[in-house]
From TrEMBL:
SUPFAM superfamilies per UniProt: N-terminal domain of DnaB helicase
GO molecular function: ATP binding; DNA helicase activity
Swiss-Prot/TrEMBL keywords: ATP-binding, Helicase, Hydrolase, Nucleotide-binding
Keyword Hydrolase attached: yes
One GO-annotated biological process of the protein: DNA replication
Protein name (record): DNA helicase
Keyword ATP-binding among record annotations: yes
Top-level taxonomic group: Bacteria
Protein species of origin: Bacillus wiedmannii
InterPro entries: DNA_heli_DnaB-like_N_sf
Amino acid sequence: MSNDMIRNVEAEQSVLGSIIQEGDLIKDCQLKVK
């Protein structure tokens, strides 16, 4: 794999990670509201 491809994969993984964290935060908020 070229360095550019590795960088792209790492970037995608970090984006997915932040989206998952946001989803967890939203779930926590919804639970507290109920």
